[in-house]
Design brief:
There is one protein chain. By secondary structure, the chain is of the alpha/beta class. The protein has one domain: Rossmann fold. Helices cover 43% and strands 14% of the residues. The chain contains 6 helices and 4 strands. A 4-stranded parallel β-sheet has the order 2-1-3-4. Helix 1 packs across helix 6. The radius of gyration is 15 Å and the shape is globular. Bound molecules: 4-nitrophenyl phosphate (4NP). 4-nitrophenyl phosphate binds next to loops. Its EC number is 3.1.3.48. Keywords: Hydrolase, Protein phosphatase.
């Protein structure tokens, strides 16, 4: 049983590539690297082909998390068929994803911070504007741990069918 996750933010240079790199590391640590594939995309097209933002690279470097080869791309309507789960980093992203992809297709769409209801925050703040990459890393790290539990549940549920 394979499972696939796509993180989506606005530019695909700050939040969603951070989440992609962090989840990939956590999947490896949990022995799930071969079962789950991870990618990220932006709703906007300004940064297509760009490496993650220097603030995202700095914090990933700090935790020795690889972002090798990662380049920004734009969300594509085909993504709805390619992924089991699309995770929007904020509520604007979620709205844009739903508008662009519609409701057909096999994938499920969730908002990242719905995984951490105890935080009482709806949106992962955009560090492109706030500059606060540490705050984003903390949310991303905690949310990805929850996402691993969620994915385990999905995989187990599906494999029992
Ligand atoms: P991200 O942040 O959505 O977390 O990648 C942004 C990056 C770039 C822009 C906006 C947000 N921009 O307007 O170029």
């Amino acid at each position: 049983m394979k499972y696939s996750v796509l993180f989506v933010c606005l530019g695909n240079i700050c939040r969603s590539p951070m989440a992609e790199a962090v989840l990939r590391r956590q999947l490896r640590d949990h022995g799930l690297a071969d079962v789950v594939t991870v990618d990220s995309a932006g709703t906007g097209d300004w940064h297509i082909g760009h490496s993650p933002h220097e603030g995202t690279r700095a914090i990933l470097d700090q935790y020795s998390i690889s972002y090798e080869g990662m380049k920004a791309r734009q969300l594509d309507t085909n993504d709805r068929e390619q992924f089991d789960l699309i995770v929007a980093m904020d509520s604007n992203n979620e709205r844009d994803i739903r508008n662009r992809l519609g409701s057909s297709g096999r994938c499920e769409i969730i908002r990242f911070l719905s995984l951490l209801p105890e935080k009482g925050i709806v949106d992962v703040p955009d560090p492109y504007y706030s500059g606060n990459f540490d705050e984003v890393y903390s949310l991303v790290n905690d949310g990805c741990e929850k996402l691993i539990e969620y994915i385990r549940m999905k995989i187990t549920g599906k494999s029992q069918k």
